[in-house]
Amino acid sequence: MRGHNRDPILARVEDFRFLYRCLYDAAEKHDLSVHAWVFMHNHLHLLVTPSTEDSLPRTMQSIGRRYAQYFNRCYHRSGALWEGRYKSSLVDTEHYLLCCYRYIELNPVRAGLVRAAEDYTYSSYHTNALGKEDKLITPHPVFHDLIAVNIMVNGSGTEFDRKAYLNLFTEVLSRKDLVTIRRGTEKGLGIGQANFLLRIAGLSSR
Length: 206
Description:
This protein is of the alpha+beta class. It is 46% helix and 12% strand. It has nine helices and four strands. Strands 1-2 form a two-stranded antiparallel sheet. Helix 1 (13-29) packs antiparallel against helix 2 (55-74). The chain is globular, with a radius of gyration of 18 Å. It starts with 12 loop residues before the first helix and ends with a helix.
């Protein structure tokens, strides 16, 4: 989701907090699992898994309406806040899911707002990479498998080591991955390798 004419949608700390509350409430109500998120000053990115075909549109509709009402009231404005309908794209889980995690959480770094992802407050990086509690986040199975370490302590169990995820951030995303993600999101073509995109095209034609 992006602000109309790329205008700011977030100005104060209170705005970021209210948008988070809107997202949390709507995702919980409509059963949408959020894996990664970032709030920028004029847009936001989400990586999600819907439980039903209505989970995503109803969540985004709720956020859009509730936050626009709040923003217009706080800043004594009227008219559209958002730049049309949100854009979404299916993700090739096997090859591009973790790239999308990084793309989202490195957005403030690419924008020149901070030098490192951990320096930006309003993203899921602090949870996914550093283990900070965030009730909004549901780890994707691929992410879970990346950080899970099986242990034996009076039986079997699982601990989590986020070093594997942190290591992904030691290198910037390649230009190819950036182009693939941006093009897929903008055009709704899907984000993934050629065989994945062909399957998506086949489903769309049917």
